[in-house]
Amino acid sequence: MPRTHRHRLLRAALTLALLTAALVTGGLANPAWACGCGALVPGPGRVISVAQETSAVAWNGRREEIVMELNVNGTAPDAGWIMPTPSTATVSLGDDALFGALQQASEPQYRTRHYFWPRSGADWPFGLGGGDDMASGSAAAAPRPVSVLSRQKLGPFEVTRLAATDSTALQNWLTRNGYSESPRLAQGLKPYVARHWQYVAIRLAPKADGSTLDGGLTPLRIGFASRELIYPMRLSSLASSTQTLRLYLLTPHRMTPGALGGGTATTAFAGRLNASDLPAGTVTAPDRPFLTTLDQVIPQPWRIKDDLHFRQASADTPYRQTIYTDRLLEFAGLPAWFVVLGGAALLGGALAVTVGALYLARRSRRRIRV
C-alpha cells in the first residue's frame, strides 16, 4: 500500500476516534435521566438514575393532586427536576405515611390451596419438603418567552414555577440556572410549550455533608386544575434505561390507563376505601375514593410519545391479588392420600377376611350334613 494512502487511512481513523470520544464525554457525561413524572437531571459530569418512582394521584374531576416519591442513586450531590403541569400548580412537601397506608390497603391476600396426590420432587414418597408457593392473580400564555411565577423553599427543595412560550428560551433559562445543558430536553418540552402548560422546576439542594443523592427523597405534593386525569410522562422518553412506576389512583371510580411506550400496566389492587384508611391531611382525595393500584414497567422509554392518560372503567369491579400457598392435604398429621389408601387397604383386607371366613364356615356346615 502506498505511504500516502496509509497516512490518509491513519488520519481518518484518528478523526473517527476523536469524534467518538467527544460524543461519549459530551453526550453521556451529563445525561438527562428522566423519571416518570417529569425529568430528573444531574449537574455536569454527574449521573443519577431513578430506581423506583411511586406516586399517589388524587382526582375529583376538576383538580388533580400528585404526591410523588423518588428513590434515586448515582454520583450527583445535587440535581434538578422539571415537571410540566397543565395549569398553575401549588407545591408543598408530602408525607411518607400516605404511601405506607396505600401499600397496606393494596397488599395481596394470602390463601392456602390443598392438593390430594403427592407431587414429584416435593412430597413423600417422591421427595422431601413442603408444597410449592404459587402466585396468581393489571393557562394562559405568558407575555414573555419565560416568566418566573414564584419561588419557594420547601425542606431540601428549591421550587420555581415557570411559564414559557418558547422551548428554546425555556432551555436557556434552565441552562443558566444549572438544570440542564441538553438540547434534547428543549425538544422534549416543545409539545408542552405549544399547549401553554406551566412548569415546576425543583432543585434538590446538596446535603450538608456533601454526600451524593442516594435512596428515598422527601415526597413532593403538587396540585393543579385538570378536567382529565393525566400523569405527565412525555419527558421520560429522554431516559435510556427501563422505567419502573407504581401509581396509586384515588378517584371517584375505577380507572383504566392508556398505552404508554410499549409497556403494559398491571392492576395490583382495585377497591373502595374509607376516609379513615388515609392519614389525615396527606392528600386531597374524593369522599370514599376508589383506589386503583397500577404497576408499570417501561422497557423502552424512548418509545413514549405522549403523557399517560386515564379513562373511567366500565364498572367499579373490585380486585385484590391472591397469592396461594399449595400444601399437601393431611389428616391427623399424615398425608390424606396415604390415610385414604391405607384405610381402603385395611377395609379391603377386612372384607377379604370376612368373605373368607364366611366361605369356610359355609363349607364346614356342608361337610357336617354329609
Describe the fold and architecture.
The chain folds into two domains: 1-30; 31-138 and 140-328. Strand 2 and strand 3 (63-74) form a beta hairpin. It has five helices and 22 strands. The strands form five sheets. Strands 2, 3, 5, 11, 12, 14, 16, 17 and 19 form a nine-stranded mixed beta sheet that branches. Strands 1-4-10-9-8 form a five-stranded antiparallel beta sheet. A three-stranded mixed beta sheet has the order 6-20-7, with no helix packed on it. Helices cover 25% and strands 36% of the residues. Helix 3 (167-176) crosses helix 4 (183-194). The chain is elongated. It is α+β, with helices and mostly antiparallel strands and 370 residues long. It comes from Mangrovactinospora gilvigrisea. Residues 1-34 form the signal peptide. Keywords: Membrane, Signal, Transmembrane, Transmembrane helix. Pfam families: DUF2330. The chain crosses the membrane at residues 336-361.
